Amino acid sequence: MSGQDDLPMPQLGLSEAEAASRFEQLQRKLVPLWQSIRELNQSEQTIVVIPSQSLEFDCKGAEMQAYEERFLFLLLLLRQPRARMIYVTSQTILSTTIDYYLGLLPGVIASHARRRLVTVAPEDRSMRPLSLKLLERPQLLERIRSLIQDPDRAHMVAYNVTLLERDLALRLGIPLYGADPRFFPLGTKTGCRRLFAEVGVGHPLGREDLWSIEAVAEALAGLRKAKPGIGKAMVKLNETASGEGNAVVDLEGLPAPGAAGEAGALAARVQEMRFEAPHVTLQGYAAKLEQRGGIVEERIVGEEIRNPSVQLRVTPLGDVELLSTHDQLLGGPTGQRYLGCRFPADPGYAALIGREARKVGARLAREGVLGRFAVDFVVVRAADGVWTPYAIEVNLRKGGTTHPFLTLQFLTDGSYDEERAVFVAPSGREKCFVATDHLESALYRALTPDDLFDIVIRHGLHFDQTRQVGIVFHMLATLAENGRIGATAVGDSPEDADQRLARLQAALEDEAQRALEPRALPGSVSAAAGLGHRMANQKSA
Q1: CATH number for position 347
Q2: DSSP 303
Q3: Count of CB atoms within 10 A of residue 25's CB?
Q4: Over the stretch 273-304, which tens digit does the pLDDT of each residue have?
Q5: CA separation for the pair 124, 41 (Å, rounded)
Q6: What's the pTM value of the predicted model, to 2 decimals?
Q7: Are residues 39 and 163 in the same domain?
Q8: How many domains does the structure of the chain reveal?
Q9: Under a CB-based contact definition with an 8 Å cutoff, are residues 469 and 425 in contact?
Q10: Is residue 397 in a domain?
């Protein structure tokens, strides 16, 4: 986080204990605010959105801005006629992108919503958390604070909550809807495993609280002793996102557990483990393990394996609400990188993982955790068709499944039935979606966001408010630099959603190819010849 170009960050002037106490007092303001918003949708409020990526993951160039803009679906909250929003990003958002989201608002005049939106940007392209960029700039913070009409009717929304976001909330004088940083250990890989064991939720065989490569090898020996048939194991850093702190160790063909030579063979396999994130070296991984700690656990295998997740929230009133279930779409070298999701999760296990996740949610609520979080699972189907779930992670933050689900919810006013594992709109029609953050091709760099809007309209793919189906884009800021965008395809069935996404991909490929076709220069020989031919025809006529 430090460097010669960093600005000096003003201190709060408080001890850590004083800052924690003041933040706890600030958070109590959420209770009356939540009650009034829940009881009366016409209540005045100001929502300050700080989509800071205050965690480590592989993100370069325009991707940082794209991830900050991934939560522009929150602009749909401006459906509430007396809601105001301050949306902060590292760089200015294109006005056409804002117009696109406001144009999706059902039952609201876009210009009315636009007057209630203020965007702010420090114009800082560095790959550091947005929260840090703001804390470095006291005058910009004062400007944001001046835009908040009533601090008692305002709250801050962040992607995840660290001490940076806490200090930002203290600087602005408004509460933050998210988990207090003091609960951070509960969301680490070590904390998750202990939490699962405490509440009786099944999870993979493993060991936690490891701080060296040597400890990893010793833990793997313990796993093999407990379950000799283990073929592969996962090594995971305590603090990472999107599977980027994960590695796979091959345990096939080793000496029997406890046999001579096992220790040396295990040490060699650990040296050869495959990393999920590109460009990671064993030396670098070992250094991070010593800093953050980590775990090892059995890699679950079977004939049919899925990777679903359950999204929940704890409200300021202490209620635990199950919001949705998703099947995650994973890729990457070891199949651990998050690419997108399908909603809802397969009804064969959606209710089952929901019940298990509620056990975790109840425990977190008793602890005092607030806000949205997700519980990730691996599920395996046996020969008799029965699914067995294994909890693998708790994310005490928003995630890749948050924005597509809330986009659907805000656009349709529908709700998720957790027992039936279906989402039903007020019309009574079920809705599904498939979403991806990785719709990418080098060809797409030939297109602009305006081109995308034109394409979906001409191909009949734009979200249709009447039928409540269609495509909604996100992460438009990385289109020009990386040829990458995100998209959520909403349909009346899983097959319908898949077809809409496939049609979008086909249209983008075709349009990008057309955009790159050779064109004659103005005034070129071919153009002049064409003009001469037309003139000759006119004379002969």
Answers
A1: 3.30.470.20
A2: S
A3: 10
A4: 999 888 889 999 999 999 999 999 999 998 89
A5: 36
A6: 0.90
A7: yes
A8: 3
A9: no
A10: yes
